[in-house]
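sry for the spam today, last one i promise. C-alpha cells for design, 159 residues
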C-alpha cells in the first residue's frame, strides 16, 4: 500500500489503496475526511485555527478554515459526493494551558475551528480523539476510511 506523509500545515488527497499519515500532533489538529463509497480520502495537519488571524502565508493546509474547502474540492474531483465525513485528532494542551487551565489553549481553539469548518461545509464529524495533554500520530487508510491514532502516553486507538 502506498503511503503519503502529510507535514505541518499541509494536506493530501488520494484514492484507493493509500495510507495518509501525519506525526507529531500536539496542539495541531489532523482532519481526516473520507468518502468511503468512492474510496477517496484527505488528511490535513492544521497548525492554526483561522486564516483571518494571520496576515502571512495562506497555505491552505495551515488553517482549518482553508483546508476543509480545498480538500473537499479535490475529493469531489476524484469522485466523492455528499457522503464525506470527518474524524478529528489532536488539539492537545501542550504548554501554557496545561499549567494555567484558565487560558484557552491553541489546541482548544484548533479543535473548535475544525468543528466549525466541518459544520460550515456540511461534513459530519463521526469520531474524535482530541484534547488532553499528549501528542499523537495519525495513520489513515483511505480505502476503508479507518483512522489509527498512536500516542506514546495513551497507546493505539482506532476511530
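last one done:
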Amino acid at each position: 500500500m502506498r503511503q503519503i506523509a502529510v507535514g505541518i500545515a499541509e494536506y493530501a488527497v488520494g484514492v484507493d489503496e493509500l495510507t495518509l499519515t501525519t506525526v507529531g500532533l500536539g496542539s495541531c489538529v489532523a482532519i481526516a475526511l473520507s468518502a468511503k463509497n468512492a474510496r477517496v480520502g484527505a488528511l490535513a495537519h492544521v497548525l492554526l485555527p483561522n486564516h483571518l488571524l494571520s496576515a502571512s502565508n495562506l497555505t491552505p493546509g495551515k488553517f482549518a478554515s482553508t483546508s476543509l474547502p480545498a480538500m473537499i474540492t479535490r475529493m469531489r474531483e476524484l469522485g466523492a459526493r455528499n457522503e464525506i465525513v470527518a474524524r478529528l485528532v489532536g488539539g492537545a494542551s501542550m504548554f501554557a494551558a496545561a499549567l494555567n487551565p484558565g487560558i484557552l489553549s491553541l489546541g482548544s481553539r484548533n479543535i473548535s475551528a475544525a468543528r466549525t469548518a466541518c459544520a460550515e461545509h456540511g461534513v459530519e464529524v463521526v469520531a474524535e480523539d482530541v484534547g488532553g495533554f499528549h501528542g499523537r500520530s495519525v495513520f489513515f487508510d483511505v480505502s476503508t476510511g479507518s483512522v489509527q491514532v498512536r500516542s506514546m502516553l495513551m497507546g493505539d486507538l482506532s476511530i
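The mean pLDDT is 90. ok im logging off now
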